[in-house]
Amino acid sequence: MKRVMLVEDEELILQGIRYINDWQSMGMQVVHMAHNGIEALEMLKKQPVDIIVTDIEMPEMNGIELISNVRKIDNRVRFLILSGQDDFNYARDALKLDVEDYILKPINEQQLQDALINTSNHLDEIDQKNSENERKNISWLKFLSEKLDKNEKEKFCNKLPDFSGCEIYPAILRVDLESLQQPDDINIISKEICNINFSVRIIYLTTDVVLLILQTKIGEEISVVEKTLTDFQNEIESKFGILSFITIGNNINSYNDLPRSYQNAYQLQKYRILSGYGNCISPEYIINKRSRDVAIDQNKLRKIILNKNQDEVISYLDDIFIGNLQDEVNVDVPYQIVLKIIMLLEEIKVEYKLEQNDNGLSKILDNIYQAKDIFALRTMLVLEISGIINELHAEKSQYTPVVRQVMKEIQDNYKEDMNLKTLSYKYNMNTSYLGQIFQKEVGCTFNQYLSNTKIEKARELILHTNMKISDISKEVGYPDTSYFYRKFKQHYGISPASLRNMKKY
After folding, report:
1. What is d(CA 495, CA 485) in angstroms, rounded to the nearest whole number?
2. Whole-number Å distance between alpha carbons of 430 and 355
């Protein structure tokens, strides 16, 4: 049963569409009815649909804007457009957004039913094609990871096109999904790569990984292949904003050797952490790379953390990364840095009996190996250390009752407009004296603790909700979003928007 959403601002027409069709006989069910694009998007967050029938002219967000927004998150859903006017511009915009049909009002019942049935059939074809592609991808992944037995491997290779008289260079292209405007923009790669000088076969292995099999003349230098792919990479970045990281395996003259060469290219993908997106590398890239012992003054870092000095933590982390990564180093060096620091943090947590999740360390390690560049690794450490500093601030046993009361007041009412003067009046104390004992016991001023609390709450909302940054700013007590941005970056060394973009690390 395919799920359908109806979007129409006129209630009479909306109800008419709902009841003029026998949805069940068409294998469909109306699960949402909305009056504008914004309302429709909210409903889609709760339950996705297969088909959306939408009006064009609506208040707050029109049909074209709705389709454009949905396309950013779901490329499978199909659209039917309803319009009261035969407007060429609307029709043109609709075609760009891959709309199934454009139906004029007043709505012809039979025309709408035919359009719905055609759309349903088209959706079945899309699903079948995706299923077939999935099966092909699984076969390729098994072949490349050498999980086929001898007979299966021979059958697989025999189905591949002959390349006698040529050599092959396999390359892995990984796309930064955040650089895609729409999910299917990754298909631009297959269209654009046809323009390079080599014959190329393209296999989409996962949502962000593409295998390129390049046929070259015998004896072609790998440097020529690297330059060709670098030029292609620069082309799709400048024209479409698509960021990628490409690694090239060694040349081969038999499909039997493809898995080995693919694995070489796959191992090079680890160097994305050092090179970043926008680069293309070959095995020659790592010839001069060397491992080294990582120099970290753990006693100094420990002292900074226990002194709860956030700014000094950020500065020292920058010094560590710059000092250890300025030379030609192996990819294991940045991981050594992070692992040594993470182990120090775990020691501090145990020693000071700070809160620890059962899966805390394993989750951190997963995040380390999923980080897409050095900046993401550094940010992950800043966030971990910031959490420890906040817990050290919140340790209750060392505080006098009045300081604990002030801290609880901040935790409970950080959104409100509060200051030390009003709290000192509430607790019948001298403002200056309360400020002095608070700073002495907590290690920072009242205003700094209040600011840290707000920023920490904002971080949680950024990482765990889909709220707009401007709304989060107001939610934690910063009406001025620009000021909130400055305070957040000062605290974490990264902007709120950048942190949200990196929350998949």
Report:
1. 6
2. 34
Instruction: Work out the burial of residue 41: count CB atoms within 10 Å of its CB; fewer than 13 is exposed, 13-18 middle, 19 or more buried.
Output: middle
Domain boundaries, given as residue ranges, for the chain: 2-125, 162-286, 298-393, 396-501
DSSP 200-247: EEEEE-SSSEEEEEEEEETT--HHHHHHHHHHHHHHHHHHH---EEEE
For residues 170 and 165, give the distance between their C-alpha atoms in angstroms, rounded to a whole number.
Answer: 17
Helix (H, G, I), strand (E, B) or coil at 18: helix
Cβ atoms of 424 and 402 closer than 8 Å: no
pTM for the model stands at 0.60
Peptide bond into 496 cis (omega under 30): no
Question: How do the pLDDT tens digits run along the chain, 505 residues long?
Answer: 889 999 999 998 999 999 888 898 998 999 999 999 999 999 998 888 999 999 988 888 888 889 988 988 888 899 999 887 665 566 666 667 788 888 888 888 899 999 999 999 998 888 777 767 767 788 899 999 999 998 999 989 988 888 778 899 999 999 998 888 877 788 889 888 888 888 899 998 988 999 999 999 999 999 999 999 999 999 999 999 999 999 999 999 999 999 999 999 999 999 998 888 999 999 999 887 877 777 788 899 999 998 888 889 889 998 888 877 766 788 888 888 898 999 899 888 887 777 655 446 677 777 777 787 888 888 888 888 988 887 876 665 567 888 888 988 998 999 988 898 989 888 888 999 999 999 888 888 999 899 989 998 998 898 888 888 989 999 999 998 888 988 888 888 788 887 887 654 3
Assigned architecture for domain 396-501: Orthogonal Bundle (1.10)
Calculate ∠ Cα 276-282-285, nearest 5°: 70
Q: Which of 127, 284, 141 is nearest to 209 (CA)?
A: 141
Q: Which amino acid is at 146?
A: E
Those residues whose C-beta lies under 8 Å from the C-beta of residue 81, and which sit 6 or more positions away, are 54, 55, 56, 63, 67, 90, 94, 99, 101, 102, 103
Rounded CA separation 155/135 (Å): 16
Q: What is the DSSP letter of 329?
A: B
The DSSP string of 272-313 is HHHH-TTEEE-GGGGTT-B-------HHHHHHHHHTT-HHHH
Residue 236 gets the label, from left (phi > 0), alpha (psi -120 to 50) or beta, of alpha
C-beta separation of 55 from 16 below 8 A? no
SS3 (DSSP) at 74: coil
Domains 2-125 and 162-286 share a fold: no
Which CATH superfamily does the domain covering 162-286 fall into?
Reverse transcriptase/Diguanylate cyclase domain (3.30.70.270)
Q: Bridge-partner residues for 81, per DSSP?
A: 54, 102
CATH number for the domain running over 2-125: 3.40.50.2300
Specify the 3-state DSSP secondary structure of 58: coil
* Residue 51: both structure tokens together: 């088909």
